[in-house]
Amino acid sequence: MNEDHSIVIAGESLAGVTTARELRRLGHRGPLTIVGDETHPAYNRPPLSKQVLDRAQPGDATRLQLTDDGITIVRDGAAGLDLDRKHLRLGSGATLPFDKAVIATGASARRLAPPGRTGENVLRTLDDARTLRDRLATAQSAIVIGAGFLGMEVVSACVRERVKVTVIDVEPPLRRLLGPFLSGHVSERATAAGVEILLDPGGVTLIGDPVNGVRFGDGTERTADLIVTCAGDIPNTGWLTGSGLEIAGGLVIDAHTRTSHPDVHGAGDVVTVRTATGLVRRPFWANAVRQGQVAAHAILQHPGAPAVFDDYFWTDLLGTAVKVVGDLPLHGPPEILDGTLADGALLRWRTPHSTTIVAWGLKRPLPRLRALAAAP
Ligand SMILES: Cc1cc2nc3c(=O)[nH]c(=O)nc-3n(C[C@H](O)[C@H](O)[C@H](O)COP(=O)(O)OP(=O)(O)OC[C@H]3O[C@@H](n4cnc5c(N)ncnc54)[C@H](O)[C@@H]3O)c2cc1C
């Protein structure tokens, strides 16, 4: 592509900002516009469920810096994509022409309450996090629906704030991704910290208007001061309806972030990647960064693009920092390379095809973990 061509990026967050930075770094000099529908300047989401929920931490600085002055930010929603005319339509009705477009509109929190019903809290945006932090300060009791990473981080915040918390899921905490070994350990730690863990294989429904509790499959009900749903996310592809782009549980891209249209790329939580084994969606921070980098390489036809996935993520569970490098889900028990689970351990899972390394409450530099995961 000509380095002076105009590029429009939809979504002013991690994937969009990374794409813009990388385009400039690789030499793109043409007009570059980011369209974002939030009122806040771009920010990072991982601190929302960690530092921002922790009233002992000063402020809630999560800003994602865009150092390049030549980038135009348009604070509006992207409302449609006309691929014949090559323009992006904004909520205001204005249009932005482009030579290349990047879709980086991320995902939204999945809600369980019907539209219009109040009282259900979710955690996806800075405003959600500030609301939840305020509510944690006054609540006596909370129910968290969903015992994945986000749900267990919210549970951790409840424990820190001395809010009596019940977490409900269809299976034990973190089992789907971390497997039975670490799930068992997390459950023990949570129970020892006073967390009530309840399972409902059919999934609970919300009750009350405003929402103030849950109903289990057997008809019993539970109420609490605070109800937080952490039941996954939904890719923000609705605005692409009618564009002709392939959507299948996310905007479909290939290993070079190409969509079904040659002038449109996708990156971050909005995408699902076509791989040899099928469509794979991994909505984690490192993948949003990586796919922004790959998109910039692909658009500029710059050599040396990295792989479309960077299998690294971290979380913070009941005061324990966890870093994971490698494939998920995990099955069976690990080899313990160093330490003990109680005091901090370095763990390894090996299959014939991959190695996954977990630093569980043990400080180890990321390059060291990556090297261990890459070792034969
Ligand atoms: C609370 C929380 C904690 C997390 N913690 C971790 C963690 O510890 N480790 C980890 O690896 N990952 C974590 N993640 C995941 C990580 O933050 C995401 O993978 C990352 O934010 C994805 O970036 P993105 O730019 O693709 O999408 P998003 O961050 O979702 O950003 C998309 C942006 O596009 C905007 N947008 C949507 N539709 C439109 C439209 N039509 N027009 C214009 N703009 C639009 C959205 O408002 C948003 O600003 C966490 C996520 C959350 C919510």
TrEMBL record:
Its cofactor is FAD. InterPro entries: FAD-oxidoreductase/Apoptosis, FAD/NAD-bd_sf, FAD/NAD-binding_dom. Gene3D superfamilies: FAD/NAD(P)-binding domain. Keywords: FAD, Flavoprotein, Oxidoreductase. This is FAD-dependent oxidoreductase. Pfam families: Pyr_redox_2. Residues 6-292 form the FAD/NAD(P)-binding domain. It comes from the Bacteria.
